[in-house]
Design a protein that fits this description.
Elements lengths: L1 E3 L10 H14 L2 E2 L3 E3 L3 E6 L1 H8 L2 H22 L11 E3 L6 E6 L10 E6 L11 E4 L9 H8 L11 E7 L2 E7 L3 E5 L9 E2 L11 E5 L6 E5 L5 E3 L2 E2 L5 E4 L2 E6 L3 E7 L3
Parallel strand pairs: 1-8, 3-5, 4-6, 11-12
Antiparallel strand pairs: 2-3, 4-7, 7-8, 9-10, 9-19, 11-13, 13-14, 14-17, 15-16, 15-18, 18-19
Length: about 270
């Protein structure tokens, strides 16, 4: 779930902006239950690298202030009835963990502009079935995908000279596609003008610019897969550990951040 505000870009990030966006993310990410309302308590905050350098030395103080602000906001909602509909039964706002966790990170994918902040949150440190958390951004962003780039990248889904080792079937914002694997290493992700990937996906920023990599052993023809992403890769329903290469079955379902699914199949013809 992604929400964008209407706040104009800031030239420099501040601690108060980050705290305000954490509160907004908590509000947008609430999950109503029968007698209570859960709100996110795990927050990953991504900043432009220059902004991160500016605040890194005081991030512990900033996190302490942010946790106090989140606690105060939760107490206020419980005291006043918070965000519930008028005449609705009162429910308690709470978190599903023992406390708040806030992490500050420098954006490594060149998606967060200076003065902006991107926040990914979860209800708990253990992922909730059917709940993908909340992503919020401070400002609207222009789409980076152009028709020329689609045409350029899609040339790589066509058969090139040499044998086809495997095929990958999937559907993204550009429609149903089939990628023919004719090389021994395949990088997969959103890519970008300054980052080439073999299989470029057109989808949300939940998918990393280089999300995963496949590698084929020319000696025995076996494939391996490595997750390189920020939001995770699932192999046949099980989440992979990051930056660890594991065997890839001859037929497999690969889910990228639970947003795009790839059907992988080795070809023997």
């Amino acid at each position: 779930m992604a929400q964008s505000g209407t706040v104009q870009p800031q030239s420099r990030i501040s601690g108060q902006i980050i705290i305000n966006e954490l509160i907004r993310n908590m509000e947008l990410g609430r999950l109503e239950l029968g007698y209570s309302i859960l709100v996110p308590c795990i927050f990953s905050v991504y900043l432009h690298p220059d902004d991160y350098v500016r605040v890194a030395s005081v991030q512990d103080l900033m996190k302490e202030d942010a946790k106090r602000a989140l606690t105060a906001c939760l107490a206020k909602w419980n005291a006043t009835g918070g965000l519930l509909r008028r005449n609705a039964p009162r429910k308690t706002y709470r978190i599903a963990s023992n406390g708040w966790w806030i992490g500050l990170f420098a954006d490594s994918e060149s998606t967060v502009p200076p003065g902006d902040v991107e926040i990914h949150s979860e209800l708990n440190d253990i992922a909730q079935p059917g709940y993908r958390g909340t992503k919020t951004t401070l400002i609207d962003r222009a789409p980076s995908v152009t028709s020329a780039r689609v045409a350029r990248d899609r040339e790589n889904t066509r058969l090139r000279t040499g044998p086809v080792f495997a095929e990958i079937r999937y559907q993204d914002d550009s429609g149903p596609q089939t990628f023919l694997v004719t090389q021994n290493e395949v990088s997969i992700g959103r890519g970008g003008e300054d980052l080439w990937v073999d299989l470029a996906l057109y989808t949300t920023e939940e998918i990393s610019r280089e999300h995963l990599r496949l590698r084929r052993d020319p000696g025995n023809g076996e494939f391996k897969i490595m997750d390189l992403s920020r939001n995770g890769t699932w192999l046949n329903g099980r989440r992979m550990a990051g930056n660890v290469e594991v065997p890839l079955p001859e037929r497999a379902e690969i889910s990228l951040a639970e947003v795009v699914s790839l059907c992988f199949e080795v070809r023997h013809d």
